[in-house]
Design goal:
This protein is α+β, with helices and mostly antiparallel strands. The protein has 3 domains: 39 residues, no CATH class; 177 residues, D-amino Acid Aminotransferase, Chain A, domain 1, CATH 3.30.470.30; 71 residues, OB fold (Dihydrolipoamide Acetyltransferase, E2P) (Beta Barrel), CATH 2.40.50.140. 22% of the residues lie in helices and 34% in strands. The protein contains 8 helices and 16 strands. The chain is globular. It starts with a helix and ends with a strand.
């Protein structure tokens, strides 16, 4: 547990917390863990908060009028913010907790224009993705951003990664699609033009076309009210969530894994499933012993999609 709390403390101070403050405090108190802080230099606040998207599984129950929305593929990679000041790329951050992230400016300079023809302070948000042909391409993209030092940067340069922009703040035009066209003219890949067929996707994003209306709708604490993600609800198999363990990947990212009562999906016996992060667990309201529905995402990776009881 000492090593686990060390890792959780490290991730928190790097701006990519894996568990909540309350959960950390409970574990720290239970195991008499009293280290204060973790020395890092790159936990930095986003200029504008990065939000997640509300999920929808039935287009007939969409939270917005889809006729008023632009729809684009929802790429499945690593979310990143780029900050341009006086036309120059000054800072790039991982999404982290949406409020602060880790400095990856050196890597993003390899993927995006270092200068744009706009002298305002502009935050561009988008996704770093790797081709679907790479196993676990989402983790490959996230892990690539975590490569450290000069040798890590050299390895990063050899990896087949692409940054695809999906928004800018403040808005660059009255219409969302026009804003993206401006980003395209700056030399950025944009989601409305990107050929996503060879890259991992996990749904379709619907976003209000009018930037003025989008701004008027505002945000909840987690989601913009002017956009949502339509997800495909694939029929799954019912089983029981027995335990959650935390696994340290080769890239250094700690992620939760569900231990399940073994079940058969297709021709495979499944006893473990990815849970992505602590927010995914909270969103599904998962508890040990609860009944869950499990699918094999892309016919390969087991994933819990909802709680059944």
């Amino acid at each position: 547990m000492q090593d686990f709390l060390d890792r959780m403390s490290k991730l928190y101070y790097e701006g990519t917390p894996a568990i909540s403050d309350a959960e950390f405090d409970i574990l720290a108190d239970r195991h008499s863990y009293n280290k204060v802080g973790y020395t890092v230099t790159d936990a930095i606040s986003h200029t504008y908060q990065m939000y997640s998207l509300q999920k929808c599984f039935d287009i007939d129950k969409a939270p917005l009028n889809v006729k008023e929305c632009q729809h684009t593929p929802k790429l499945d990679g690593a979310a990143v913010s780029l900050l341009y000041v006086d036309g120059n790329l000054e800072l790039a951050l991982t999404r982290g907790d949406g409020i602060q992230g880790r400095d990856i400016t050196d890597k993003m300079r390899e993927l995006v224009p270092n200068q744009i023809s706009d002298t305002r302070l502009v935050q561009v948000t988008g996704e770093v993705v790797a081709p679907s042909s790479i196993p676990n391409s989402r983790n490959f993209a996230s892990g690539s951003l975590g490569l450290k030092g000069l040798s890590g940067l050299e390895e990063f340069r050899t990896r087949p990664l692409v940054f695809v922009a999906y928004d800018a703040t403040p808005h660059l035009a009255q219409n969302y699609a026009c804003s993206l066209e401006i980003l395209h003219k700056f030399g950025l890949n944009v989601v409305t033009r990107f050929k996503a067929v060879d890259y991992p996707m996990d749904g379709i994003v619907f976003r209000i076309k009018s930037n003025e209306k989008y701004a008027e709708l505002g945000h909840t604490s987690k989601h913009p009210r002017g956009a949502f993600a339509l997800k495909e609800q694939v029929a799954g198999v019912e089983t029981t969530l027995l335990e959650v363990i935390w696994q340290l990947g080769k890239s250094g990212v700690v992620s939760p894994v569900a231990i399940l009562e073994p079940c058969v999906i297709g021709e495979a016996t499944v006893a473990r499933a990815t849970l992505h992060n602590i927010e995914y667990i909270r969103d599904l309201d998962l508890e040990l012993g609860c009944k869950v529905e499990v699918i094999r995402s892309g016919e390969i990776i087991p994933r819990i999609v909802r709680r059944l009881d």
